[in-house]
Amino acid sequence: MVKLEYNEHREAVITLTPNRSLTWQQAKWIILIMVSVVMIIALAWTFVGAWVVLPFAGLEVGLFAFLMYKVTRFTYLQQIVRFDENHISVKTGINKVMRHETLLRQGTDIYYSETDRNWTTPKITLKNGSSKIQLGTFLNADDMAVLREKLESLGFPICREHWWK
Fold first, then answer.
1. What's the rounded Cα separation, in Å, for the pair 129 and 40?
2. Which of 123, 160, 125 is nearest to 145 (CA)?
3. What is the pLDDT of residues 140-158, one digit of tens each?
4. Which neighbouring-strand residues pair with 91?
5. Fewer beta carbons within 10 angstroms: which end of the chain, N or C?
6. CA distance 144 to 2
């Protein structure tokens, strides 16, 4: 999701977040249901005498819960791009700033790159000299197009690798 706002200092702020179809509360319910079903089946097999199923069932539900946690947590990642009159600031993190980068606004170019047959999601990169910051690595192709439109609406020229498209 791409959201453009202006703060009290009239600075443009773009907030980038991945699409989230599952909340953390819903993920916990799915984990609970999966653990319950697998453990009921494993306990039934254990009472029949196939006790060797129990450790593998525990491993399965543990791995499932861990992966659901990691995937759901990743959907809360966000990138905040702030444009003031002299700098471009990019903050990335989940619930707190994990990475903060700043570029001078003057001399910064925005590059939009895509594959020849659009097999992968386009990339938007801020470049100033040898410094590069890639924006929205977690966005889908539609959101990348929206981000490109928002950057153009702020007056930034977009440099493309394929000028004929």
1. 60
2. 123
3. 989 999 999 999 998 888 8
4. 80, 100
5. C
6. 8
